[in-house]
Specification:
alpha+beta; 2 helices; 3 strands; about 20% strand
Length: about 140
């Protein structure tokens, strides 16, 4: 069954998305948050009413197994963690696009199959009569 330009374009885009997914690096879900805390010592600078406290301390929060998990992120890993979160968001976007394109391709192929089946059903028989492949033998021999 020959492919239409629309089906061909969908297949090309699907292959592009597949290649982008295959080249994805390390990723992690979640969101970063900066936290400040007070140590509780009365003589510390964090005890002042206008002080934000000690920090910022960075934490990564994500869902795992239906539970919320929070992990401390050291300052030296902050930028790498941001890149991994961005990679995860890109991954989610690409997988959504992959599923959507796949659905469109399936629908287009179904449509094309229906149209070709309808075209075959509309074919008319040949106007000339069919000739026998061999002539009947004479009974006199």
């Amino acid at each position: 069954m020959p492919t239409t330009p629309a089906i061909s374009a969908l297949q090309d885009r699907l292959e592009q998305v597949r290649l982008q997914l295959a080249s994805m690096g390390a990723m992690r879900p979640g969101s970063l948050a900066s936290r400040f805390r007070r140590c509780g010592k009365p003589g510390c600078h964090c005890a002042a009413p206008d002080s934000p406290g000690h920090g910022p301390y960075w934490t990564l929060t994500f869902k795992s197994g239906g539970k919320t998990v929070t992990r401390a992120i050291p300052p030296h890993a902050l930028e790498r963690t941001r890149q991994q979160i961005a990679a995860y968001k890109r991954f989610r976007s690409l997988t959504g696009e992959f599923v959507e394109l796949s659905e469109q391709l399936c629908q287009a192929q179904l449509r094309q199959g229906r149209e070709s089946a309808a075209a075959k059903a509309k074919k008319k028989p040949s106007p000339r009569p069919l000739s026998p492949t061999s002539r009947p033998r004479s009974k006199l021999s």
